[in-house]
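User: Round two. Same drill as before: sequence, then structure, for each protein.

Assistant: Same drill it is. First protein:
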Amino acid sequence: MNFKKLGKILGKIMILESMLMLAPLVVSFIYGEEWKYKLAFIIPMAALALMGFLLQIPKPKRDTLFQKEGFALTAFAWLVMTLFGAVPFVISGDIPNYADAFFEIMSGFTTTGSSIIRDITVISHSGLFWRSFSHWIGGMGILVFVLIFIPESNEGSSMHLLRAESPGPQVGKLASKMKVTARILYLIYIGMTVLEIIILMFDKPIPGYEEDKLFISILSTFGCAGTGGFGCIPNSVELYNPFSQYVMAIFLILFGVNFSLYYLIILGKIKTVLKSEEFKSYFTIVILSVALIFISLIWRFEDYPQDYTMEEAFRHTLFQVASIITTAGFSSTDFNVWPMLATTVMFILMLTGAMAGSTAGGIKLSRIVIAFKGIKVNIRKLINPRYVPKIEFEGKQLEQKTINDVFAFITLYFFIFIAAVFFLSFDPVNGEVFTVVSDAGSYQVKHGLLSNLSAAVVCISNVGPGFEAVGPYSSFAEYSTFSKILLSFAMLIGRLEILPVLILFSPKTWKTV
């Protein structure tokens, strides 16, 4: 293990996080907040900068990173970002308990959107900005940004880092150099972010939040871009105007698309994009899901408590499908009380996620498409043992290793999911009854198996709210400290696609080379 090289890059990441905290610090000055809110960022900024510069001093014997080191570095980078990222909440008093703050900022960086905050109105503007900004930071990836600054000579090292952090079974370069690829990805990301902020500003202000129009537009866009889902006003986006809800739904779907396809569109290769198997699967699933849920709502119009018009039923359906399949977790209404068909479809979407190479979480549609093709081939080989399989995906023949990796990932995913549900079953909160107040009225929910099942799924898939006692109008605050830490690491495992975190527990990882 090249510890000095790892320390050097971790130092750069710490300096980067220190610089990123300037943004919420500026927000604190703009809103004239008390000095404790300013110190909440100044203190960790100074500590991060000092430690980061100290880690630059040792000179590594070699400048390259092996694959295991790239994976380990990725996990460490996200842990360091989270450990320090939680500090401002504790110092300011927004979230006094460090375990709760760790859960909240881990949920932010991993773009999960699950929260322990019961009353969002007590959080400072700088605190709200930092938690939503963490979505935008984690959306494209911390190390993708750092890759821009890694020397050209370390091309192999850069590829290991991108492979460890980027979602999907296959990772490639858009250009000849990784640094150029990272720049292209971030330019597209920033461009789409700015565009959404501008469009949202055309909407009329939310009643009661006239002075915060730009602030809310920026934070809402951070959540869409990173497909995170932290709300900045009570009830997520329920109070937003229909125009903003439609705009956010469209951008959520767009941010769920593989960013490589946007690069192809820029190059004028639109036909190639339209031929993409994953692209077609993505939009087919979105359309079918919207149709199924909308029909279920119309069919049961008189049976559920929300008093929707036809337009409202369609808008909430489109928004929730966009929010769930992209694993953003925003909520425009209480889908906890929707018909069984609707909630079943949404539960499936929580598992699948959107496209690989996007900011979304979940298993990813590319893996699901490849898995179905692999199953089809295995069935054909059972029927005809002499059959020579040839599996193609996106116009390229897949190696058997890629197919095996997909099946291994899905197996690991469900193993971790089952383990998380098992450990959550020991939590003292199980069996307690809570009152939920939403647009569906006031009703009681029991914290049971569905709560734990959905909590595990939404954390591993980086979705946000679940069902029952962890639904869109509830929070994760009632879980014990142990469960919150468990779910925090489930978020990290899900965001980093399992292996970069699990590799830390292998003794061979730590052998000095």
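Second protein:
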Amino acid sequence: MDTDKNAQGCYNNDVKGVTTDIFKFEEIIRCDLLYVDKTKYIYDLVGSMDRRFFFLSRPRRFGKSLFCSTLHALFDGRKDFFKGLYIAEETDYSFEKYPVIHLDFSSLTLTDEGSVLSDVQFMLMEAGRLNGIDVERDTPYAMLHALITRAMEKTGKPVVIIIDEFDSPFTSEFGSKPELIEYMRKLFNGLYKTIKADSGYIRFFFITGCVKLANLSIFSAMNNLKDISMDSRFAGAFGYTDEEVDRFFGEGIDENWERCGYSAREDFIKAIKDYYDGYRFSPDSETRVYNPVSIGSFFSDGCVFDNYWEDTGVSTMAVELAKRYDITGIDTEDMVLLKRNLATFDISRLSETSLSKGNVLALLYYSGYLTIAEPLPGGAVLGFPNIEIASTFMGNLAELYGSSDYEVGKMIVLGTAALVRGDTAGMIASFNEFCRQCSSSIVRERHENPYHMMAHMFFVSCGCRVASEDSTAIGRIDLTVEKEKSIYVMELKVDGSAEEALRQIRDRDYAGKYIDYSRRHGLALHTVGISFLSGRRCIEEWKEEIIS
């Protein structure tokens, strides 16, 4: 891979560089930017005529638009753009040219019914223009039908229809305009009825979005769609696998692991994996992938560990959900998503005033906050995919439940800095002030659970690897926290003493579980007893021992 490096050793974006803001396949190839080859998955879709109508869901910023753009170039017969890629070099694909109708619903203006109608009409007229066909302004259904049939008549070939971000108009509004959502539901339902009626004129149909398409009312007419969202064959179609990261970003790893302070290349890879890997989209596949925008931003930004996904503007759904549903206990309780929650969820119901827990978990899965941690018959246990997403999620919740989002955010920043330094006193001070900011919203009882919840929220928000109720041979550690060069084994007491908490750690040898691990990775092992005073809802005292 040809690369141009800057003084920090990261990729510049001019020669075979990493881009995180260009999503058109032709532009990436034309500008000679990095393209991680996903054309094997595309060939698996288009190489057979057995099935022609497909749907696939993935969270936002996972490469769906790039995948759709690649399909467009393929069916446009642009073989020159695929030189050196799997589909051109390893298959007999013909690159035959077809008329392509490519619609992206993320660009709709959602002011009112008139703006939505006008935008859809413009999209269809523009798709006609690109195919050399005049489509008069009419009802969207009549326009789409005319476009499909006239393209077939003009070229003698069936059309290809690609729809990107089908759910964006619904999830963007998130129930704030119920009348507009109902209008869009009827509008899109009519469009899909037209597609079903004209299926004999269609060579290939692909639709994608965040929310899984399953018995949705807006798709009631399209019973010929094959949903491949959880198909094991496409588990790695979006995002980057371990092998792809090593192949396409290996030079960046080689040039930066020592500069970033790691004693071995493997330790640097593990840190990257902990922070950005972990998305699993099929219960029948062990394949896990990295978010492409996060990993691309990481290398473009000089290998700085940061929450890049949050900067893409897709992380507000947690806050919106928290306004309707108590999700403070998320990740400290079993998160089991039933298949029927996926099969019955309807995005047009987002205008409802409340959501069931199953629907909340489904939305968090669709949006990328949660992923499959463990498959179960009839469902799956969900979990945060990685540190980046967990800290983004908990940070958003902490700011929502805190009395001051600035003060909560400041404590997370200061706490993170203290954890990086291995400064236990600084970390405790920040954690204590965090508790003062959040306790009135969360602590309603004298028992320990709310304090465990706040501790979990704080340390996850600080980007730590956190294990709550961490099992050992003779008990459960309240909290185990790992950050940079330190591991903290913590016991929390309410209206008890810090010495009592520390004695429990000693008597039950909680630290023994991590002695070998800490020595092997050169980590300082801290045991910390913390006592909360329920009357003041803050830390009364704390004690620490460091195990050598």
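Confidence is low (pLDDT under 50) at residues 1-16.

User: Perfect.
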